[in-house]
Amino acid sequence: MARKVRVLIAKPGLDGHDRGAKVVANALKDAGMEIIYTGLHQTPEMIAESAVQEDVDIVGLSILSGAHMTMFPRIMELMKEKGAEHILIFGGGIIPAEDMDKLEEIGVARIFGPGTDTGDIVTFIRERFPEE
Amino acid sequence: MAERPGIERLLELFAEGKVAAAARLITILENGGEDAERVLDSVFHKTGDAYRIGFTGPPGAGKSSLLNRLTGRFREKDHRIGIIAVDPTSPFTGGAFLGDRIRMQAHSEDPEVFVRSLASRGSLGGISNCTDEVIDLMDAFGKDMVLIETVGVGQSELEIAEKAHTVVVVLVPESGDGIQAMKAGLMEIGDVFVMNKADHEDAESAAREIQDTLRLKDIPAGEWEPRVILTSAREDTGIGELVEAIEEHRRYLEAGGHFAGIRRKILRSRVRNALMDRMERRLRQSAGVRDLLEQRMESVYKGEISPYKVVRELEELVSIQ
Predict the structure, then answer these.
(1) Contact between A37 and B102 using a beta-carbon 8 Å cutoff
(2) Spatial separation of the C-alpha atoms in residues A59 and B110, rounded to whole Å
(3) What is the separation of C-alpha B154 from the centre of its chain, rounded to a whole number of angstroms?
(4) Which of A111, B46, B98, B319 is deepest in the core (most CB within 10 A)?
(5) Which pLDDT value is given to residue B281?
(6) What pLDDT is recorded for position A62?
């Protein structure tokens, strides 16, 4: 059995809108990937632990609440503590351009803004994890 | 991207109890091949102690929510829990949406609860082909109880019956009309039947219907009589009774000496299946077999020899022993 790309899609924090996360999850599933979706209101600890237990290749965070500058670094730090610093992280949601740059500087692989074509996200992941 | 450790290093980290290493080894098992065999070869001597409980039933019956509740009770009893949650792989795209964790959040920060979502990856039996191997790994990792949730099943996806010590069939009042139809499948594999969503007005009559269906079966004296339990995962009722029924079934297996028998049965079937897979692969790859087939099929097409004649010739060619 060939390896499959495994992706965790998570919704950290308090906002209750997961339509975007589900659209992305669905597009990645249709592209042949295995998507683990954990639902709303996740703490950074829950997301990091899920990513580690599921041994995903990459984590996608959907953040609309404005908490992105604390969420991304915290989750990355926790994954590192758990010995999973190799797991990539990307995000989407309402995130100002200057913050996007800062996040990419600290190692977030990519931030996708509103209106992104899901095909771009599929391509972005495929390029990093070609299926064998 | 950080360099990933090799298998030897992963096995060391695994022995030290590192979850990330265990998770990576599970991925290796899932992907199969030589690496998977190497992992199994080195952890197998640490397996055989975990109690395996399978949960199966139609989609939407509340299996994940029930597992979430049960895990809480088992943790109170200091069990270390591994959970394997299987969801279907799309036969069209090969992708999968694994959503069982959504309803298993209560324990997502408890280090003694290890949840792994598996995609069925083409297996039709309601679980993944590597379920046995993943159970082994969790067992070797020190989990003394492994809970396996199948994909939402209908009548024929019954493979879990061959993997678990106790099979819990989870139904809901809406399954009522289907119970008759399920007599030949799901109804035969349950050691414990759960009528979930007990707050539903038809729950009690549906539970009675299951009980009636079960009574039709002739169970010899001294053998296990399946229990029927009413629960509500949402309201957290009936969970204690379910724990009791599972533990009672476990005591029955242990007292009757069935426990060792189940392990032997599981292992025999694993050896058989692995052997068949290996032989099939070798046959497919054998140049001699391919050439002979090529040569003789023309005669079969023309009706000169029967398909069985070719098979006899092939058998001579590959004769084992």
Answers:
(1) yes
(2) 20
(3) 15
(4) B98
(5) 87
(6) 93
- CB of B78 within 8 Å of a chain A CB? The answer is no
Domains of chain A, earliest start first:
6-122 (3.40.50.280)
Is B108 in Cβ contact with A49 (below 8 Å)?
A: yes
Q: Alpha-carbon distance B247 to B250, whole Å? A: 5
Do the Cβ atoms of B2 and A85 come within 8 Å?
Answer: yes
CA-based nearest residue to B128, from B93, B171, B166, B98:
B98
Contact between A113 and A92 under an 8 Å Cβ cutoff? The reply is: yes
Tell if the CB–CB gap between B13 and A83 is shorter than 8 Å.
Answer: yes
State residue B295's pLDDT score. 92
Report chain B (321 residues): mean pLDDT per 10 consecutive residues.
80 96 96 93 95 93 94 97 95 93 88 94 85 96 97 79 93 73 77 92 88 86 93 94 97 91 91 90 90 93 95 86 63
What distance in Å separates the CA atoms of residue B105 and residue B68, rounded to the nearest whole number?
7
Q: Which of B107, B115, B117, B281 to mutate to test the interface with A (most CBs of A within 10 A)?
A: B117
Q: CB of A42 within 8 A of CB of A12?
A: yes
- Could you report the predicted ipTM of this complex, rounded to two decimals? 0.92
CA B280 to chain centre: 23
pLDDT greater than 90 at residue A30: yes
**Cα distance from B117 to chain A (closest Cα, Å)?**
7
Domains and CATH numbers, chain B: 1-45 (no CATH), 47-256 (3.40.50.300), 269-318 (no CATH)
